[in-house]
């Protein structure tokens, strides 16, 4: 599974006048399902608890719970890149990486794995979700319709997938009704 390193301020929360980033619930649902997620934030230095405590002031309980279950802690000291497993398939979401962190990635030819987040763009998290989704497609060889649906809409039981299933059922019913068997 591809690793995803997650910053908090400027990614899941707005950096100024701190509040939940628009679209954060759907974004968290998506990334926690499809990536092996790791914290990469000043709020986590080896222990996820402070990050979750901080997030609990701004995020809905169900979103917080998904993060609690899925996101693993990292330890880093000076540069966030210390915690990144550059040998693995990974992406890193951050709003303000240091020049030295970018240089570290460039030296290892993985600078394209850094996705810089700018929450002042409208629909930034939905845009990133789509970008990550397209990257999943390019690395996954699809073997079945079920797998395709899991990637595109999420697994059964999630809101996005059930919305798809309901819409698809309606579509099937309409097709059947407009072409009644003779
Ligand atoms: Mg940040």
Structure explained in plain terms:
The structure is a single chain. The chain is α/β, with parallel strands linked by helices and 182 residues long. The protein has two domains: 3-140, HAD superfamily/HAD-like (Rossmann fold); 142-182. The protein is built from seven helices and four strands. The protein has helices spanning 24-34, 49-55, 61-70, 99-107, 124-139, 145-153, 159-178; strands spanning 3-6, 36-39, 90-94, 114-116. A four-stranded parallel beta sheet has the order 2-1-3-4, covered by helices on one side. The longest helix is centred in the last third of the chain and has 20 residues, at 159-178. The model has no long low-confidence stretch (mean pLDDT 92). The site of magnesium ion (MG) has 6 residues, from loops. Magnesium ion binds at residues 7, 9-10, 94-96.
User: Could you name the CATH class of the largest domain?
Assistant: Alpha Beta
**The biggest beta sheet, please?**
4 strands, parallel
Roughly what fraction of the amino acids lie in strands?
Answer: 5-15%
CATH topology of the largest domain: Rossmann fold
**Which parts are unreliable, with pLDDT below 50 for 5 consecutive residues or more?**
none
| Main sheet strand line-up | 2-1-3-4
CA(first)-CA(last) distance: 49 Å
Mean pLDDT: 92
Estimated radius of gyration: 19 Å
| SSE topology string | EHEHHEHEHHH
Number of E-state strands: 4
Would you summarize the structure shown here?
The chain has 182 residues and is an alpha/beta fold.
